[in-house]
Please model this.
Amino acid sequence: MTSWLLALSAFVVFFLGYRFYSRYLAEKLFRLDPDFITPAYRQEDGIDFVPTNKFVLWGHHFTSVAGAAPIIGPAIAMIWGWGPALAWVLMGTVFMAGIHDFGTLWASVRNRGQSMGVIARNVIGPRALTLFLLIIFFLLLMVNAVFAVAIGTLFTNFPASVMPYWLQIPIALVIGYLVYKRNWSILLPSIVGLALLLGLVYAGTLMPVSLPEETAGYPATAWWVLIMLTYGAIASRLPVWLLLQPRDFINAHLLFVCLALVYLGVFVGRPEIVAPMLNQDLPDGTPPMLPLLFVTIACGAISGFHGLVSSGTTSKQLKKETDARFVGYLGATGEGLLAVAAILATAAGFATFSEWSEHYGSWQQASSQGIAAFVQGAGSFLQHLGIPLVVATTFMSMMVVAFAATTLDTGMRLQRFILGEIGRQYNLPVLSNINVATVLVFISCVALAFFADPSNPGAGGMVLWPLFGTTNQLTAGLSLLVLTLILMHLKRNYLLALIPCLFVGVMTAWSMLINIGNYLADGNVLLTAIGGLILVLNIWLVLEGIAAMGRKRAPEEMLDQGEG
Amino acid sequence: MGAIKRRWHQLNRFYDALYVTPYRRTARRAQRRQEDLFRLLVMSEALGIPNPASFYTLELLPFLMEDFHAWHLRMGMEHSPLEGMKCC
Model:
């Protein structure tokens, strides 16, 4: 099987999904109205509510939702073979992520641009908002620890990417300064910045930076985790315009360059797939594919985080309701394309099957080294375009690190806000102190990254990945439940939202039961406690759903009917 | 030549919009915080806070009148809360 055929099939499936299914959703299910006055106009304030061009909005939406997660998930799930991973990404994107992202955007637009948490409170009840905040808290807690470990792994495996990554920071600082303080237009600085960065990738290959294999009893990866979390804590204290915004912008360029180069490499080089379609010879200790596949790949198939972006910022800027199809559905499709690229890289990026097996020799190795396998594989695709392998892998590694680091910065920032919120709610003003909150966030992330897997301190955070996936899916489950209830009260075909909702609900609960069993068997108290709490949230979600279905609500309470 | 220039400006505008959109809210809030601090410095005497630079900041008051009006509306006060500052 050649990889280019798979890539082509994925393009065709996504195209058909957009052309037919999203059209059906737009016309029959959500009944988008081009004359509906969107919150961007009705509540225009120049800050949150601003009518925005749909291409700009799609760019914002897509780059906000795409990151390291749709790469890490498929790279780990490759252990079960490329067939199940690809099938889940394609079906998940077309029939679940599509309706989830598009639907949450629509629901928010029809609810005065409110966020999913507030809509859940209106549609389900006040407890739903608490449930929502708790799920988000766990999601952020895990994403920071996991991404710090992923970065540590990449720095250890690809020391050439260390220098370009760190030098990206001063480039971003200069861009931020020029745009905000000197009022420059962003186009020229971003092009120069990108060119400089690509130059640094080459320079990095000449000057690799590695830490000693072991210092004070901890491996190099553990030290990188500590350095990255310290960086995250400092970066999250800087003004957004100074570092986060310009870096995010350069990363968006990197994302498009990476996607284009990977697919171009696939079509030019036409590498053969060496990974098995269905891995019959699973290493001992690999959890069952059903249901773990569905939480290992969350972003890239269906991810609750997208609903937060859809209803958080995108819905407040939608010019026309009919743009929701383009922005929401195509945003999900873009992420699906990134996940397919990760599958292709880890399935066809190796010369032989034995080389592939080295990366996927055990479940623990797949979890911790999956991301390195992606970098290696994608680097080999770029080689077909005449780029030397070491430069290509450095580029890919730096790109994934940059994505993960930006998420780390944002994640630590958001967690600080949540702590402040909890402080205000429970009369603990000390939590609202920005320095105290930052230190608390830092300590909790370090504790999780170091003690999640006591046998592998500092490098064991990847065992959290299935828990991260589960929490992410739970967020999606809650949003889909809200959508189902809205559609049910409007007497429309709610099954299109209910089926994905039940699917993610069942898969997450099942996965959690298996995971908790494993944690108990290993005697891991921390993970058993976190897993138990997430399972409780899962059961809570199901009970809320059942209770809400029985309540009678008028359609006007569900959404803004518009004046048109 | 004119067409190229127009396209270049168009591209610049598109890029600026892409850059600003995701962070508009955060940037505006940060700006507002800075403006609030400036407003406090200028009007500190009116609030009973001694200001050694009041000789200079007094001159700025007329320029802040419109801004002050927008501020008290934002704070949920229909009319000016200060005795000496009647903007509406």
Remarks:
- Chain A has one domain: 3-558.
- The first strand of chain A starts at residue 214 and ends at 215.
- The longest helix of chain A spans residues 389-425.
- Chain A has a mean pLDDT of 90.
